[in-house]
Amino acid sequence: MAEIEEDAIFTIVTLDERDERLARLLGIFEERGIPWLEGRNDCFTDEELESSRLLVMSYDINATVFGGPRMGTTYDMTEACKRCGAGARQTSAMIIDVEDLHKLEGRRAATTPYDDVLVDEKLAAVLAESGATGLSFRGVFSAFEKRGHIQLPWRQLCATHTMPRMSPRSTGIFPYKPCPCGRSSFTGQTEIPLRLAYRAADIAGISDVNVTWEWFGEVKFNGDVNDSVLAAPYFLVTPKVWRIFRDAGVTGFDWIPIRVIDE
Ligand SMILES: [Zn+2]
Fold it and tell me: Record's superkingdom (predicted)?
C-alpha cells in the first residue's frame, strides 16, 4: 500500500515478500534507475505475541519527541563506559523539547530517539495498577524559556532490570563502530529482520519490563553528557504489558518476540 505525495523525498511501500507485485516493482525501479532501500521485518499475529516470553517494544518513529541528554535530562556516569557512555543512569525527570509538544496531542504513548517510552498519566496509572514487575516511573517535563520547567501529564516508563548479554545467534544487529567495552554501537541491518535470541537460563530472571544490556544507535560522546548523543538499550516487555498498550488503543509500535534458544 503506497500513498505518494507530490513533493515526497521518499515513499514507503510495504508488501508481503510473497506478493508478486514486489518483483514487478523492483523491476520498474531497475528499469528507470530509481534508487531504493529494502527493509525486511517479520509480522506477527496477536496469538504469536501472546505466547512470547518477551517482546522488543520497537519505538514508533511517527511519535518521537526529542528529549534526553541535550535537553537537560541528567545522568549518573560513574558506572558508564568512559568512551561511549553506555551504562549512563538517568537521575532526573525526562525533559523534552518544547518544539515537539504538539506531537503528543491525541497520543497515549510516544518515545524519544533514545527509545525512552513515554505514556500519558492515565495509561501510567493502568500500568502501575497492573502490578507489572520491574517498572518504575519518572516525570516528564518541558523547558519553557521564561517559565522554567513545566510538568506534563505524561510519565516515562523505566526498567529496573537489565538483561544479560543476548545470544550471538541474534540476527539483524551488528556493531558498526564498536567500542572496546563491547556494549554499544549496535545498529539494525535493514535487509535482515531483527531477531533477538536469549538462552533459556537468561530469561529465568526477567521482569515484565526490562532493558537490553547492549546499547543501540549512534554515539557522539566526548565526556560531556549535556552535549552528547548516547546509544540506548532496547525495551523488552512481557505480553502482559503489550496487552495493556493494545487495550488502550495504542498503535504505531512494533512488537517483536524474542527467540529462546538452547545452548
Ligand atoms: Zn563503550
Answer: Bacteria
C-alpha cell at 55: 517482546
pTM across the whole model: 0.88
Ligand 1 centroid, distance to 6 Cα (angstroms): 43
Residue 200 backbone class (left: φ over 0; alpha: ψ -120 to 50; beta: rest):
alpha
Does 134 share its domain with 189? Answer: yes
Q: How far is the CA of 158 from the centre of ligand 1 (A)?
A: 22
Q: How confident is the model at residue 6 (pLDDT cuts 50, 70, 90)?
A: low
Which domain range does residue 9 map to? 1-38
Residues 255 and 143 in one domain: yes
Q: Give me ligand 1 centre to Cα 183, in Å.
A: 6
Q: How many domains does the chain have?
A: 2
Looking at the fold, whether 31 and 127 belong to one and the same domain comes out as no
What's the chain's average pLDDT?
90
For ligand 1, the distance from its centroid to the CA atom of residue 178, given in whole angstroms, is 8
End-to-end C-alpha distance for the chain, whole angstroms: 41
